[in-house]
Amino acid sequence: MSIQVTTLDNGFRVVTDVIDTVETAAVGVWVGVGARHEKKEINGVAHLLEHMAFKGTERRSARAIAEEIESVGGHLNAFTSRENTAYFARVLKDDVPLAVDILADILQNSTFEAGELERERAVIIQEIGQASDTPEDVVFDRFQETAYPGQPLGRPILGSAENVGAMSREVIAGYMRENYAAPTMVLAASGRVEHDALVTIAEDAFGGLPTNGGPNRAPARYRGGDVFESRELEQVHLVLGFDGVPFKDDDYFTLSVLSNLLGGGMSSRLFQEIREKRGLVYSIYSFTASYADGGLFGVYAGTGEKQVEELLPVMCEEIAKVGASIGEDELARVKAQLKAGILMALESTSARLERIGSHMLVYGRVLDVAEVVDAIEAVDAKAIARMAARLMASRPTFAALGPVGRLEAMGSLAERFA
Amino acid sequence: MSIQVTTLDNGFRVVTDVIDTVETAAVGVWVGVGARHEKKEINGVAHLLEHMAFKGTERRSARAIAEEIESVGGHLNAFTSRENTAYFARVLKDDVPLAVDILADILQNSTFEAGELERERAVIIQEIGQASDTPEDVVFDRFQETAYPGQPLGRPILGSAENVGAMSREVIAGYMRENYAAPTMVLAASGRVEHDALVTIAEDAFGGLPTNGGPNRAPARYRGGDVFESRELEQVHLVLGFDGVPFKDDDYFTLSVLSNLLGGGMSSRLFQEIREKRGLVYSIYSFTASYADGGLFGVYAGTGEKQVEELLPVMCEEIAKVGASIGEDELARVKAQLKAGILMALESTSARLERIGSHMLVYGRVLDVAEVVDAIEAVDAKAIARMAARLMASRPTFAALGPVGRLEAMGSLAERFA
Q: How far is CA A198 from CA A188, A189, A194, A361, A365, in A?
């Protein structure tokens, strides 16, 4: 691994991960602000701002932004998560300076022109409609709201159609001024790039960013509870979860191993017990999410209206006993999967960009691959049992969408873990 | 590129694409049979067989298959398309022999045990339920049925719950015996592999496959027409398309350029006109599908119930005029995108596996990257105009799902292209 980091005078950081064997690069700006850094009345602004960044600057129209990058065969994209917003490009190696120029322009000189804003509101309202037609998206939003009720961390990233329709140009520009500051922004590049050359470009392009500012956040206060939403669907889509761990928790990798052991692959306990032995689902998997000061762990399953009565008790039992009687073979297998997964991800220029960009924001440095592998190796059955007990000590969060009648009749989830 | 091909005595082919700079490999068996090689009463059997291949052999239980590959950090997967079925593994470089041993075993010694079959039927019925809750999946299935009505090529890959619930062990085993023959199967590997070593392994592992057999197909007879399905959704999900081109058509790459020019990226005509200028959608894109003897071209869009009245005429107009007044800049930009996309895909071990496996089945060889780039370069405005006229000469296929009342009231799509 060939990671290099340089910090400019204003606190803006440049990180590169050079891969000499490819002919392309991935380059992006990671910003440490997202949907959790929003007051209720402006929920959705981080995502609306991410969209508006592509809608024209003092130098470039929206169309010119799209055409400039695509005329060299590149492409631009962006995403907003609960703690980050990222803007990135995939380009051939010679076009890295162009990509950085465009990224710097859209992040510092966007005009948020009135007509463009009106049209982009309409686009996001369609995006909200599309998400609302996707059961998995809806049930995860309900899950998040129930885990963190009445808090920014529990609100949907897209915001509501009402908010998106109402937020003014000044609200968007003000949010950017407050939160897009040099110390919370990282220019990251992976692939065929040169660190020193990129730093020189970055000094010009991002050296003028303000040093003050950056996001404030309300603390994550996990609560839990049940939410059922009846909808005419073939399947009941359900998510059951618990209070998890923040990024820097000592048991961050313990939870990662626990999660994969429970629902990570074809040989995982949930897949074997619920799909292979009982035929109750097509999809079942566990997941983790981490934040600066909290996190979530959970399981998603989609099953039929009738099958849910058999599925739920078995799923709860597998979760409840995950810390008990862990076999050596099983533990070795999960570690092998995680380690091989890391190696395979290193083959992807885009995955390496994502890795270095997010690590800089979370840890202030990029974790060594060897360090991560060692941390995974160090997880033992005792640590998993401890982590499991910690999960189960929180009140469960349970969200279900679809034909939920039989589920509601089964009573409270919390009691099953009491 | 370092492609090598060897044909065994029984006609089974081995193809490798060595990448010396990685530590892993992707290896799989591509079989030239899929959902279009099914009679009506056994629609779904190719996909059911693909699932049953993982459910146990004479030597290995279903659980052993999952555990063996995952204990070395690898993973197994498979897919069924209309003309192909593929089984593949991602592993570290030293585990290629194990992956091939498992692939050879599940493709020649599967037992299709009765209890496993009953459970797997239930899993696929859940998969059908999940697809039915995904509007984009449903509208594409309706589109395919309407393009090829009453033909195997028009039927859903998953089949119906009735068929999946009813097909016997003998039907599945018989389908495999008839269609899985050496000359229609390819062992493909990309990444850190050695061609000669793989051939030696393959002689042992696949040398006993029968030389006779292979799938029969009914010819693709494109028809077109309209289908509307009313469902309570936020968006109308719609697909509008035309008769396209088979893989070996002289204008295969012409259609690829046309499709990207119309709806391939942020600078494409549909994205600019319908999302950027009018704010009518979040998602709009064009696509192509090719088969041995036919193909499809189309556009997907998701929009609101009210917006559909503005969207449909504009979308039709953009499609109708795609062959006219193509700018040189525009054409150069689309070619640059396609060429860069090829380069970027070459960085992915999995994408290279998919490429060589499918090329061997379609062309009997792997197309050179330079050859593909030349073919893209050769496409000019005249060829696109010719291709557009050819598309428009077919009767349109139009599928819509959601609140479709206003759409239905707008009359026949065919007349708009008359």
A: 9, 9, 6, 19, 18
